[in-house]
Each structure stands twice: as structure tokens, then as C-alpha cells.
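Backbone geometry:
***
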Amino acid sequence: MVTEPLSQKPDIAHVRREAGVIRESRASQAFRAVNVICILLICAVTLYPFINLIAKAFSSEGYIAAGEVNLIPLGFNLDTFRVVLSDQLFWTNYANTFLYTIVGTIIAMAMTTTYAYALSKPYLKGRTFFVGVAVFTMFFGGGLIPNYILIANYLGWRNSIWAIVVPGALSVFNLLVMKSFFENFPTDLEEAAAIDGLSTYGIFFRIVLPLSKAVIATMTLFYAVSLWNSWFSAFLFMDDKARFPVTVYLRNLIAAATGTQDATGGEAVQIASNIQAVTMLLTILPIICLYPFIQRYFVSGVMLGSVKG
């Protein structure tokens, strides 16, 4: 005769563990919900100015002046785009900005990577001195007038690309971040390459740089955005409008934007606020298109270069 097994008492410890798992799961869900809400709020606060800028760029000045434009364009208007895009000087200055940004970024990255790699080596003679020289420039500068005299008079770089790309070619912050990254670079790889016969330059260009894509992409983004948005150096050292970057063009355009007439010579259309939105939108568009391609390197590059293990 087969008898059914007697019912066993529940394991109190097992029940408590299951209850703990449930409580932990609920706590995790609540934590994720709070995180999602916070992230959505941050995204809303961050994106609102940009969406508002786009709405103003396609809106009529009357609605903008009345404060009615928020997230949706009102009185759809493309006249300002036609005014700006039909100006040949705008395209000339736009091309100048690309040239200054590309050349300046290449120079800055060449100086930063080589300087940081040299400073990352503890056996470098005078290493402390060279680090101190770099850090000293973070706190003390020559001043505006001495810099102007040096660049415009002694170096003769007035109305020259070098007045824009050379003075700010080395950011000490970027240098220190990259130096910290190189200090964490595995020395075994460099020693193995040296045994195989590679010189110092060969190790740097064939081993170190290809394995440093994250921090290089991050520093490239920093330099490119800084050069793209720069306007004061060109405003200070350039007189020829054909050599202006687009930021100076937009600065002058906004300063002089009191009104314009339509193509038929009719009533003047006030576009002061609208032209600001249009010109700012056209200025930031290339950076917005560039960022997604290197965004995946951004966080990892900063973290790798900022934490010394």
C-alpha cells in the first residue's frame, strides 16, 4: 500500500529569502522608475532650448516678438534662410570655419599626443619641470595686449590662419587627461615592440595610437568644438571679411539685424530674433551631425584618461 508523503513544514529561511528577492525586485523597479523620470526631466530641460531654436528659425518675427513660439513654428517662414543662404560671403566664411577647425584640430592633436606621451614616461629627464610649465599656463597668462602685440606685430600673423589655430593649439586639461591615459597604458606591449625592433616613434605610431582611439576621439571632439565655436581670435586679428569664420559672420549679422526688405522691395520685414535662430541653427548643424559618430568613444575616453589605476 502506497501512502502519500506527509506534508512538510515550509522552510522559513527559504520563504524569507524569496520575500527578500521580491522586496529587492520592487526596490530595483522603483529605483529604475525614479532614474527614468530624472533622465526624462534632464532630457526635456536640455532639449527645450534646441527645439525652441528650431521653432523660432521657421517662425515669423511677429510671433517670436509676441513670445508665442515655444516648441512649434508659428507663421511658417523661410525668408530668413533665403537671405542667409543666398549670401556668398556666408559660404566663404563657412568654408573658412571648416578649414580652421580641421587644421587647428590636427595641430592640436599632434602637439597634445606627443607631449602627453613624453610626459607619461617616468624616466624622462626634467619631467617634473615640463609638467610644471604646462600647469603654470593654466593659472597665468601674458594678457590680451601682450598676446596681440606678439601675434600681430612680432609674428606677423594678422589676417592669417595661424593667428587662430596656433595660440590655442594646446589645452593643458586635455594634455593632463591624455597623459594620465598613457600612464595606464600596458608597458608590456611597448617592451615587446621594442624587442621586435621598433623605435620609439614606431611604438608610438604603430602601437600606442591605434590602441588609444577612445581618448583620441574624445580630445578631437573637444578641440573641434572649441575651434568651431571660436570667434574672438578672428574678430581680434582679422580685418578681411573674406577670411572671417562663420561665427564672426553671424556675430556681425546679428549685430546689424535691424531689418531687411523682401525681394520685391516691399515692406521691411523685421527679422532680428528670427535671424539669430537661423544663423545659430546653421552654425551648430555640423557639430550635431558629427557627434553621433564619436559619441560612443566619449565617455570611455574621459574615464580612461581620468582614473589612474
In short: The two ends are 70 Å apart (CA to CA). The mean pLDDT is 80.
